[in-house]
């Protein structure tokens, strides 16, 4: 973790100048604040992350052994994706339910990270239940808008020319990352600022990230890259150890590590969102305290 923080600090440099109206993202500060938030609330945060992220993902990996196999056997990718498609076709309702519960858990973790009075898990999850529909609605709006844009850039151009469709697709990818960055603070806005209107939350996230969009995207990229590297290293070690115990043990080990990394990523990224929101909004979590009074 110290290595990641040092790398972020070197990348950050000295970009903040006096008199600027837009606060520049301080990556090193955001990382340190995020880790401090997790450390101060680790007992309750890890419980919620375990229930809402670790266990569901582990169950999914054990129910889809072909997917776990594909992680170590590239030749099995095609078969794994076919099995995955069949699984989604049968269990779509369960996937929606789990996604809903994970949304509640995610918002609950944000509440736990935000309030310095350390609310109970039950209080935090109540906030998650109250905010989850706004969270879903906000990203449905973004998804629909992006879907329409995809139809214009790819669908309509495909009717005219394959080359134009390819160009449209190439344009679409960076726009997707840009939209992800601009609206990434929606969960933090919903919880930390007690916003209920999804459109207001989208607008607020757009406003908060103004002037920092590419910098914030770079920060997210560094975090994701670090996670991938760590996961590859750990997976290689765990796969080797569990392979000595047999193929079934190896599949379980792969599922275990994947589920653990999923929970770690979810918790860490939510802490980063909270810390970034604090920088841009200049808040310290006092707003959410009113919810428990």
The proportion of strand residues reads under 5%
The amount of helix comes to over 70%
Number of helices: 12
Overall strand count: 0
Q: What is the approximate shape?
A: globular
Rounded radius of gyration (Å): 21 Å
What is the mean pLDDT?
81
Alpha-beta content class = mainly alpha
Q: What is the terminal-to-terminal distance?
A: 36 Å
Question: What is the ordering of alpha helices and beta strands?
Answer: HHHHHHHHHHHH
Biggest sheet layout: none
Contiguous runs where pLDDT drops below 50 for at least 5 residues = 7-21, 284-293
Transmembrane segments: 44-64, 91-113, 133-156, 162-180, 217-245, 251-276
Keywords: Membrane, Transmembrane, Transmembrane helix
Protein name: Glycerophosphoryl diester phosphodiesterase membrane domain-containing protein
Organism: Croceibacterium salegens
Keywords:
membrane, transmembrane helix, 293 residues, globular, disordered C terminus, mainly alpha, Glycerophosphoryl diester phosphodiesterase membrane domain-containing protein, transmembrane
Q: Could you give a quick summary of the protein structure above?
A:
Helices cover 82% and strands 0% of the residues. It contains 12 helices and no strands.
Question: Your description of this structure?
Answer:
The chain crosses the membrane at residues 44-64, 91-113, 133-156, 162-180, 217-245, 251-276. Keywords: Membrane, Transmembrane, Transmembrane helix. Helices cover 82% and strands 0% of the residues. It has 293 residues and is mainly α. The chain has a domain at 34-132 and 211-292. Helix 2 packs across helix 11 (247-281) and helix 8 (186-192) packs across helix 9. The relative contact order is 0.15.
């Amino acid at each position: 973790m110290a290595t990641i923080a040092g790398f972020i600090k070197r990348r950050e440099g000295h970009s903040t100048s006096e008199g600027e109206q837009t606060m520049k993202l301080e990556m090193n500060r955001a990382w340190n604040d995020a880790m401090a938030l997790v450390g101060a609330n680790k007992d309750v945060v890890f419980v919620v992350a375990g229930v809402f992220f670790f266990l569901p993902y582990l169950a999914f990996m054990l129910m889809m052994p072909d997917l776990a196999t594909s992680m170590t056997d590239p030749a099995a990718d095609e078969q794994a994706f076919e099995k995955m498609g069949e699984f989604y076709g049968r269990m779509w309702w369960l996937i929606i339910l789990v996604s809903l519960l994970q949304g509640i858990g995610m918002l609950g973790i944000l509440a736990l990270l935000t309030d310095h009075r350390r609310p109970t898990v039950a209080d935090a999850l109540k906030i998650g239940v109250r905010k989850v529909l706004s969270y879903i609605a906000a990203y449905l709006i973004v998804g629909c808008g992006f879907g329409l844009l995809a139809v214009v850039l790819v669908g309509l151009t495909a009717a005219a020319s394959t080359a134009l469709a390819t160009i449209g697709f190439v344009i679409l990818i960076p726009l997707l990352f840009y939209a992800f960055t601009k609206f990434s603070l929606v969960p933090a806005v919903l919880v930390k600022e007690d916003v209920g209107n999804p459109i207001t939350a989208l607008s607020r996230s757009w406003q908060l990230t103004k002037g920092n969009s590419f910098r914030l995207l770079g920060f997210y990229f560094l975090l994701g890259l670090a996670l991938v590297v760590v996961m590859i290293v750990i997976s290689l070690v765990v796969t080797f150890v569990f392979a000595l115990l047999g193929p079934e043990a190896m599949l379980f080990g792969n599922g275990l590590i994947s589920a653990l990394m999923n929970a770690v990523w979810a918790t860490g990224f939510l802490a980063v969102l909270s810390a970034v929101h604090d920088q841009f909004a200049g808040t310290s979590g006092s707003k959410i305290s009113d919810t428990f009074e």
